[in-house]
Amino acid sequence: MSSVVIKPDVYWVGAVDWNIRTFHGPAYSTPRGTTYNAYLIVDEQITLVDTVYGPFAQELIRHIAEIVDPAKIDNIIINHIESDHIGAFPEIMRLAPNANVYATANAVRGIKKLFFRDYDITVVKTGDTISTGKYTFSFIEAPMLHWPDSMFTYIPELKLLLPNDAFGQHYAANVRFADQADLGLVLMEAQKYYANILNPFSKLVLKKLEEIGELGLEIDMIAPSHGFIWRNPEVIIEAYQRWAQGTAERRIVIAYDTMWESTAKLAHALLEGVTDAGWRGIIFEISKSDHNEIVTKIHDAEGVFIGSPTYYNNTLTTVSPLLDELVGLKVGGKFGFAFGSQGWSGGAAKTIEGKLQAAGIELAAPAYTVQWVPTDEELAEARSLASSLLT
Ligand code: FEO
After folding, report:
1. Ligand 1 contacts CB of residue 165 (under 6 A)
2. pTM for the full model?
């Protein structure tokens, strides 16, 4: 890849990571890879907004060098200090040691502990600006979107918003704009990103969108730090509004794991009931599915049914991580229901119900459990129960 002009005087100088398959350690699956987007704005002063993940530092430097000698960078703006964006910062500082660096107070605190050294960094807050000649860089703090240090940078003369992680997607490609890609897939990845990273901060997302509206920012391009750049920003802004408001589809997600197929049989009987009621339904066998995809589907579903056989008075060990994710991601605002099978004693349903409630999910009915193998009558009862919950 080479650097790409995204607007007059503005260059994408980031890196494409085609081969990454998990992000945040093992927590987030990235089957489509990702990009680490950094932007160079050429004016009387040269400004770099964000860097890239450390192993890609040389790619960033090569892209910058296609435009200008990296030693000539005057300003470095750090919107976020997670390693995928700040990893190459020390290398850039080695090449441009006199560059002025701008970041939030929280970012400055974090940088000290990330690199064990004191960089000379100017602390900025919402409303602060710098001028580089023709262009003004305006800073908007965005704490908890998604870290306390996060900030957006806005360039009014270019109507360009650089919001770092917000509005991004993990998606590697050889084109830079969302309108050059399959928009359905891009939005799917953007929603996965939202559901699995930003959802706990939905109230802050809505507040930030409102603040952007109140500030009267004219935006005709949003250039996030991952994935595609939005030349049609209303598409992703409207999607974020919808996701943050928790708008749900008339759909049930059934996620289960099974030991000897009894819970699986119940899951499919429940799906029959969902179908009888005229609702859309989708089934995931948890241990064979991508957790992030399950979470994404649950994110905008009206209801979620979780099933597990009892194993040592608890759920199967493969079910607990999903339940913990639902709690951590605060997926509430929907209804839930537990089901499963047991042998000599129970316990799984109680755990599931507790976790669903802890996630803010309202229980629609007491758990439905069977002993050993479900009979035809019990399967019919499960089917009818699911249907009755939805009609
Ligand atoms: Fe893309 Fe929060 O890092």
Report:
1. yes
2. 0.94
